[in-house]
Amino acid sequence: MTSSPQPSVPQIARVGIVAKRGLRAASDHLDRLARWLRERHIDAVFETETATLAGSGAGAASHSRDEIPRHVDLIVIMGGDGTLLSMATRIALAGRDIPILGVNFGSLGFLTESRIDELYPALDSVINGTAPIDQRAMLAADAYRAREHFDSRIVLNDVVFGKAALSRIIELSVSVSSGLVTKVKADGLIIASATGSTAYNLAAGGPIVHPLVDAIAITPIAPHTLTNRPIVIPGSETIEVRPNIDEGAEIFVTYDGQTGYPLQKGDVVVVRKSERCLRLVRAPARSYFEVLREKLKWGER
Protein backbone atom coordinates (compact mmCIF):
# COMPACT_ATOMS: atom_id res chain seq x y z
CA MET A 1 0.00 0.00 0.00
CA THR A 2 1.30 3.43 -0.86
CA SER A 3 0.74 6.27 1.55
CA SER A 4 -1.05 9.43 0.53
CA PRO A 5 1.14 12.40 -0.49
CA GLN A 6 2.20 14.62 2.37
CA PRO A 7 -0.03 17.73 2.49
CA SER A 8 1.87 20.97 2.75
CA VAL A 9 1.64 22.99 5.96
CA PRO A 10 1.32 26.77 5.66
CA GLN A 11 3.53 29.00 7.76
CA ILE A 12 2.53 28.69 11.41
CA ALA A 13 1.91 32.12 12.95
CA ARG A 14 -0.76 31.26 15.54
CA VAL A 15 -1.09 28.04 17.53
CA GLY A 16 -4.35 27.16 19.27
CA ILE A 17 -4.01 25.30 22.58
CA VAL A 18 -6.89 23.16 23.88
CA ALA A 19 -6.70 21.01 27.02
CA LYS A 20 -9.14 18.46 28.36
CA ARG A 21 -11.60 20.17 30.68
CA GLY A 22 -10.29 20.23 34.25
CA LEU A 23 -6.91 18.68 33.36
CA ARG A 24 -4.87 20.39 36.07
CA ALA A 25 -1.89 18.16 35.30
CA ALA A 26 -1.50 20.20 32.12
CA SER A 27 -1.25 23.62 33.83
CA ASP A 28 2.54 23.91 33.99
CA HIS A 29 2.91 22.53 30.48
CA LEU A 30 0.45 25.08 29.09
CA ASP A 31 2.37 28.00 30.52
CA ARG A 32 5.67 26.56 29.29
CA LEU A 33 4.23 25.97 25.81
CA ALA A 34 3.04 29.57 25.56
CA ARG A 35 6.54 30.83 26.44
CA TRP A 36 8.16 28.42 23.97
CA LEU A 37 5.94 29.74 21.18
CA ARG A 38 6.56 33.39 22.06
CA GLU A 39 10.31 32.82 21.93
CA ARG A 40 9.81 31.75 18.30
CA HIS A 41 7.58 34.75 17.53
CA ILE A 42 4.48 32.56 17.27
CA ASP A 43 1.25 33.64 18.96
CA ALA A 44 -0.31 31.26 21.49
CA VAL A 45 -4.11 31.30 21.38
CA PHE A 46 -5.86 29.51 24.26
CA GLU A 47 -9.29 27.95 24.30
CA THR A 48 -11.24 29.87 26.95
CA GLU A 49 -11.35 27.18 29.65
CA THR A 50 -7.77 26.16 28.87
CA ALA A 51 -6.66 29.76 29.51
CA THR A 52 -7.86 29.40 33.11
CA LEU A 53 -5.70 26.29 33.54
CA ALA A 54 -2.70 28.03 32.00
CA GLY A 55 -2.14 30.52 34.80
CA SER A 56 0.31 33.27 33.78
CA GLY A 57 0.31 31.95 30.21
CA ALA A 58 -3.29 33.10 29.93
CA GLY A 59 -2.12 36.57 29.00
CA ALA A 60 -2.41 35.29 25.45
CA ALA A 61 -5.55 35.68 23.35
CA SER A 62 -8.37 33.22 23.96
CA HIS A 63 -11.48 32.01 22.11
CA SER A 64 -14.23 29.49 22.69
CA ARG A 65 -13.91 25.90 21.43
CA ASP A 66 -16.26 26.71 18.56
CA GLU A 67 -14.36 29.83 17.52
CA ILE A 68 -10.70 28.91 18.03
CA PRO A 69 -10.33 26.98 14.72
CA ARG A 70 -11.08 30.21 12.84
CA HIS A 71 -8.17 32.07 14.46
CA VAL A 72 -5.18 29.69 14.32
CA ASP A 73 -2.96 27.76 11.90
CA LEU A 74 -2.45 24.68 14.10
CA ILE A 75 -4.18 23.24 17.17
CA VAL A 76 -2.34 21.42 19.97
CA ILE A 77 -4.56 19.10 21.99
CA MET A 78 -3.57 18.17 25.55
CA GLY A 79 -5.73 15.40 26.92
CA GLY A 80 -7.08 12.31 25.23
CA ASP A 81 -8.86 11.10 22.13
CA GLY A 82 -12.22 12.52 23.27
CA THR A 83 -10.85 16.07 23.36
CA LEU A 84 -9.33 15.61 19.91
CA LEU A 85 -12.61 14.24 18.49
CA SER A 86 -14.55 17.27 19.70
CA MET A 87 -12.07 19.65 18.07
CA ALA A 88 -11.92 17.64 14.82
CA THR A 89 -15.64 18.24 14.33
CA ARG A 90 -15.29 21.93 15.12
CA ILE A 91 -12.44 22.35 12.62
CA ALA A 92 -14.54 20.69 9.91
CA LEU A 93 -17.58 22.85 10.68
CA ALA A 94 -15.39 25.96 10.55
CA GLY A 95 -14.33 24.96 7.03
CA ARG A 96 -10.66 25.12 8.00
CA ASP A 97 -7.84 22.89 6.79
CA ILE A 98 -5.53 23.17 9.81
CA PRO A 99 -3.61 20.27 11.38
CA ILE A 100 -4.04 18.87 14.90
CA LEU A 101 -1.19 17.72 17.11
CA GLY A 102 -2.51 15.49 19.91
CA VAL A 103 -0.56 15.08 23.17
CA ASN A 104 -1.80 12.35 25.50
CA PHE A 105 -1.76 12.62 29.28
CA GLY A 106 -1.71 9.07 30.61
CA SER A 107 -1.77 6.05 28.33
CA LEU A 108 -1.01 6.44 24.64
CA GLY A 109 -4.06 7.24 22.51
CA PHE A 110 -4.95 6.06 19.03
CA LEU A 111 -5.38 9.70 17.96
CA THR A 112 -3.38 11.61 20.58
CA GLU A 113 -0.22 9.71 19.68
CA SER A 114 2.45 12.00 21.11
CA ARG A 115 3.58 11.98 24.71
CA ILE A 116 4.40 15.18 26.57
CA ASP A 117 8.16 14.62 26.20
CA GLU A 118 7.64 14.47 22.41
CA LEU A 119 5.68 17.73 22.21
CA TYR A 120 8.48 20.14 21.33
CA PRO A 121 10.28 17.97 18.74
CA ALA A 122 6.87 17.36 17.12
CA LEU A 123 6.07 21.09 17.16
CA ASP A 124 9.46 21.90 15.69
CA SER A 125 8.83 19.50 12.82
CA VAL A 126 5.42 21.08 12.09
CA ILE A 127 6.86 24.60 12.13
CA ASN A 128 9.76 23.71 9.82
CA GLY A 129 7.50 21.72 7.47
CA THR A 130 8.97 18.25 8.01
CA ALA A 131 6.20 16.74 10.19
CA PRO A 132 4.49 13.58 8.93
CA ILE A 133 0.82 14.50 8.52
CA ASP A 134 -1.98 12.03 7.75
CA GLN A 135 -5.18 13.02 6.00
CA ARG A 136 -7.93 11.18 7.88
CA ALA A 137 -11.30 10.72 6.19
CA MET A 138 -14.35 11.97 8.10
CA LEU A 139 -18.02 10.98 7.91
CA ALA A 140 -20.97 13.26 7.14
CA ALA A 141 -24.39 12.34 8.54
CA ASP A 142 -27.72 13.89 7.54
CA ALA A 143 -30.98 13.08 9.32
CA TYR A 144 -34.47 13.36 7.81
CA ARG A 145 -37.89 13.37 9.48
CA ALA A 146 -41.01 13.16 7.31
CA ARG A 147 -38.64 13.70 4.36
CA GLU A 148 -37.52 17.02 5.82
CA HIS A 149 -33.83 17.48 6.61
CA PHE A 150 -33.41 18.33 10.31
CA ASP A 151 -29.78 17.65 11.28
CA SER A 152 -26.24 17.54 9.84
CA ARG A 153 -23.06 16.31 11.52
CA ILE A 154 -19.42 15.73 10.62
CA VAL A 155 -17.54 13.14 12.67
CA LEU A 156 -14.11 11.59 12.65
CA ASN A 157 -14.83 8.18 14.22
CA ASP A 158 -18.37 6.90 14.02
CA VAL A 159 -22.13 7.21 13.88
CA VAL A 160 -23.73 4.80 16.36
CA PHE A 161 -27.34 3.61 16.63
CA GLY A 162 -28.19 2.21 20.04
CA LYS A 163 -31.01 1.41 22.42
CA ALA A 164 -32.07 2.85 25.75
CA ALA A 165 -30.68 1.13 28.84
CA LEU A 166 -33.77 -1.06 29.44
CA SER A 167 -34.97 -1.29 25.84
CA ARG A 168 -35.26 -4.59 24.01
CA ILE A 169 -33.36 -5.46 20.84
CA ILE A 170 -33.77 -2.85 18.11
CA GLU A 171 -34.27 -3.35 14.38
CA LEU A 172 -32.61 -1.27 11.66
CA SER A 173 -32.82 -1.47 7.87
CA VAL A 174 -29.42 -0.76 6.29
CA SER A 175 -29.06 0.12 2.62
CA VAL A 176 -26.22 1.36 0.44
CA SER A 177 -26.20 3.01 -2.96
CA SER A 178 -26.91 -0.28 -4.75
CA GLY A 179 -29.81 -1.38 -2.51
CA LEU A 180 -30.74 -3.10 0.76
CA VAL A 181 -27.85 -4.69 2.66
CA THR A 182 -29.65 -6.21 5.63
CA LYS A 183 -32.15 -5.79 8.42
CA VAL A 184 -30.20 -5.84 11.66
CA LYS A 185 -31.72 -7.02 14.94
CA ALA A 186 -29.17 -6.16 17.61
CA ASP A 187 -28.29 -3.94 20.55
CA GLY A 188 -27.15 -1.39 18.00
CA LEU A 189 -25.12 -0.60 14.89
CA ILE A 190 -21.82 1.22 14.31
CA ILE A 191 -20.88 2.99 11.09
CA ALA A 192 -17.18 3.75 11.43
CA SER A 193 -14.53 5.48 9.37
CA ALA A 194 -11.16 3.78 8.97
CA THR A 195 -9.86 5.97 11.81
CA GLY A 196 -12.87 5.05 13.95
CA SER A 197 -12.34 1.33 13.34
CA THR A 198 -10.07 1.18 16.43
CA ALA A 199 -12.68 2.84 18.69
CA TYR A 200 -16.14 1.45 19.58
CA ASN A 201 -16.09 -0.59 16.37
CA LEU A 202 -13.10 -2.60 17.63
CA ALA A 203 -14.70 -3.18 21.05
CA ALA A 204 -17.82 -4.52 19.30
CA GLY A 205 -15.80 -7.05 17.30
CA GLY A 206 -15.45 -5.00 14.13
CA PRO A 207 -12.39 -5.06 11.84
CA ILE A 208 -9.33 -2.84 12.14
CA VAL A 209 -9.05 -0.77 8.96
CA HIS A 210 -5.79 1.06 8.24
CA PRO A 211 -6.56 4.82 8.28
CA LEU A 212 -5.25 5.32 4.74
CA VAL A 213 -7.73 2.78 3.31
CA ASP A 214 -10.75 4.41 1.65
CA ALA A 215 -13.41 2.33 3.41
CA ILE A 216 -16.29 2.40 5.88
CA ALA A 217 -17.04 -0.36 8.41
CA ILE A 218 -20.60 -1.39 9.33
CA THR A 219 -20.67 -3.39 12.57
CA PRO A 220 -23.72 -4.75 14.45
CA ILE A 221 -23.53 -4.56 18.25
CA ALA A 222 -24.42 -7.93 19.84
CA PRO A 223 -26.60 -9.07 16.90
CA HIS A 224 -29.57 -11.36 17.60
CA THR A 225 -28.59 -13.45 14.57
CA LEU A 226 -24.97 -14.58 14.77
CA THR A 227 -24.70 -14.60 10.97
CA ASN A 228 -25.03 -10.79 11.01
CA ARG A 229 -21.34 -9.96 10.72
CA PRO A 230 -19.34 -6.74 10.27
CA ILE A 231 -18.80 -5.65 6.69
CA VAL A 232 -16.31 -3.25 5.09
CA ILE A 233 -17.58 -1.26 2.11
CA PRO A 234 -15.94 1.25 -0.25
CA GLY A 235 -15.67 4.81 1.00
CA SER A 236 -17.61 5.96 -2.06
CA GLU A 237 -20.84 4.31 -0.83
CA THR A 238 -23.73 6.15 0.82
CA ILE A 239 -25.34 4.33 3.75
CA GLU A 240 -28.99 4.79 4.67
CA VAL A 241 -30.27 3.61 8.05
CA ARG A 242 -34.00 3.37 8.79
CA PRO A 243 -34.96 2.46 12.36
CA ASN A 244 -37.99 0.22 12.84
CA ILE A 245 -39.48 1.72 15.99
CA ASP A 246 -42.29 -0.29 17.55
CA GLU A 247 -44.30 0.77 20.60
CA GLY A 248 -42.01 0.93 23.61
CA ALA A 249 -38.79 0.86 21.55
CA GLU A 250 -36.27 3.68 21.92
CA ILE A 251 -33.46 4.16 19.41
CA PHE A 252 -30.76 6.80 19.77
CA VAL A 253 -28.14 8.01 17.32
CA THR A 254 -24.85 9.36 18.68
CA TYR A 255 -21.99 11.07 16.91
CA ASP A 256 -18.38 10.30 17.95
CA GLY A 257 -19.76 9.46 21.40
CA GLN A 258 -20.08 13.21 22.02
CA THR A 259 -23.67 14.18 21.18
CA GLY A 260 -26.87 12.57 19.95
CA TYR A 261 -30.65 12.36 20.17
CA PRO A 262 -33.58 9.89 20.04
CA LEU A 263 -34.98 8.91 16.66
CA GLN A 264 -38.66 8.77 15.76
CA LYS A 265 -40.62 6.36 13.60
CA GLY A 266 -39.96 7.12 9.94
CA ASP A 267 -36.64 8.93 10.52
CA VAL A 268 -33.78 8.22 8.11
CA VAL A 269 -30.08 8.85 8.74
CA VAL A 270 -27.81 9.01 5.69
CA VAL A 271 -24.05 8.56 6.23
CA ARG A 272 -21.33 9.12 3.64
CA LYS A 273 -17.70 10.12 3.48
CA SER A 274 -17.39 13.83 4.15
CA GLU A 275 -15.71 16.24 1.80
CA ARG A 276 -13.73 17.39 4.82
CA CYS A 277 -10.60 15.59 6.06
CA LEU A 278 -8.73 15.90 9.32
CA ARG A 279 -5.02 16.64 9.08
CA LEU A 280 -3.45 14.73 11.95
CA VAL A 281 0.20 15.20 12.92
CA ARG A 282 1.74 11.77 13.37
CA ALA A 283 4.10 11.07 16.24
CA PRO A 284 7.54 11.07 14.56
CA ALA A 285 8.83 8.42 16.96
CA ARG A 286 6.41 5.61 16.06
CA SER A 287 4.37 4.17 13.20
CA TYR A 288 0.66 3.30 13.12
CA PHE A 289 1.50 -0.36 13.71
CA GLU A 290 3.67 0.52 16.70
CA VAL A 291 0.67 2.32 18.19
CA LEU A 292 -1.50 -0.75 17.54
CA ARG A 293 1.03 -3.07 19.15
CA GLU A 294 1.30 -0.89 22.22
CA LYS A 295 -2.43 -0.25 22.66
CA LEU A 296 -3.57 -3.80 21.90
CA LYS A 297 -0.65 -5.55 23.64
CA TRP A 298 0.17 -7.59 20.56
CA GLY A 299 2.97 -10.06 21.13
CA GLU A 300 2.72 -9.90 24.92
CA ARG A 301 2.11 -12.97 27.07
Structure description:
This protein is α/β, with parallel strands linked by helices. The chain folds into two domains: 14-132 and 282-296, Probable inorganic polyphosphate/atp-NAD kinase, domain 1 (Rossmann fold, 3-Layer(aba) Sandwich), CATH 3.40.50; 138-275, Tumour Suppressor Smad4, CATH 2.60.200. It is 18% helix and 39% strand. A hairpin with a 2-residue loop joins strand 10 (170-176) and strand 11. The longest helix is centred in the N-terminal third of the chain and has 13 residues, at 27-39. The model is unreliable at 1-5 (pLDDT under 50).
Strand content: 35-45%
The radius of gyration is 20 Å
User: Whole-Å distance between the termini?
Assistant: 30 Å
Q: What about the largest sheet? A: 12 strands, mixed
Mean of all residue-level pLDDT scores: 90
Give the number of DSSP strands.
18
Label the structural class.
alpha/beta
Nutshell version of this structure?
The protein has helices at 27-39, 48-54, 81-93, 119-127, 200-203, 288-296, and strands spanning 14-19, 43-47, 61-63, 74-79, 99-104, 114-115, 133-145, 148-155, 158-163, 170-176, 179-186, 188-193, 215-221, 231-234, 239-244, 251-255, 259-262, 268-281. It has 301 residues and is of the alpha/beta class.
What's the structural blueprint in terms of helices and strands?
Blueprint: E1 14-19, H1 27-39, E2 43-47, H2 48-54, E3 61-63, E4 74-79, H3 81-93, E5 99-104, E6 114-115, H4 119-127, E7 133-145, E8 148-155, E9 158-163, E10 170-176, E11 179-186, E12 188-193, H5 200-203, E13 215-221, E14 231-234, E15 239-244, E16 251-255, E17 259-262, E18 268-281, H6 288-296
Parallel strand pairs: 1-2, 1-4, 2-3, 4-5, 5-6, 5-18
Antiparallel strand pairs: 7-8, 7-18, 9-12, 9-16, 10-11, 10-15, 12-13, 13-14, 15-18, 16-17
